[in-house]
Amino acid sequence: MKKTICGLMLVFACICAMAQQKPLIGISTGYSASENTASVRYTYVDAVVNAGGIPVLIPLAKDSLAAAEVISRVDGLILSGGEDVYPFFYGEEAASALGGVNYDRDRSDMWLLQTAVKLNKPVLGICRGEQLTNVTFGGTLYQDIPSQFPNRPVLQHGQRSSGTLPIHHVNVVKDSRLYEIMQQEQLAVNSFHHQAIKDVAPGFKVVATAPDGVIEAIEGFPQYNILAIQWHPEYFAQQGDAQWIKLFEDLVIRAGGSRPLLKNPNIRQPKIR
After folding, report:
1. Phi and psi for 39 in degrees, rounded to 5?
2. Among 157, 168, 194, 232, which one carries the catalytic annotation?
3. Which residue in 35, 127, 168, 249 is the catalytic one?
């Protein structure tokens, strides 16, 4: 009888420990061939930490197997911002206003994203991450909003002020995961892009637009466990803005986690001698 009770207590303790485990959130990084470096702004790292996840930086995957291996070990994925998406991936010639592209990074991020979908790992795409998500699943882009966006006055989508300041509003569709998270029909956002979604990929729907008509968010539920947005909420989440941390908490929750308090690991503070 005592053995049975002890066994049940052990199982219960294991379940509680699992419930308290924070999910690992992979963050795709930028890649510079000339400098031989992988990097990402710390805003993403702090946003994940503030939402109760453990950030894991993912360097460039050299092949699809490497991408599959790393995604199998994390619980969720953030596709971070960066360069323009290579237009050949959506069947277009390069426009004169196209910015710098990074073929190797595009390919790596596509492998990460496709593997996450196959393994049903949740994804949050941010800025370039939204655009690359759309292209990966068959959508297209405006290569340059000022020169290609049709017949509309265009807002300042490439802001020249700090990323901690909102520059324009977006209107949110009420019947959407984004609205469930934010509980607002209009959001004030920052903006650092000159490309935007043109044709939306099959299986995705538009859930936010700017007042000038530029698509600002798409999501793929229930077919794809993906929310992708055009602005950079990590700037606000890093500062502890509870409203914007919600977007990252949603990813943590979709990754199977909650927001437990970290117990004191009893590690001594290093002394400078």
Report:
1. -155, 160
2. 232
3. 127
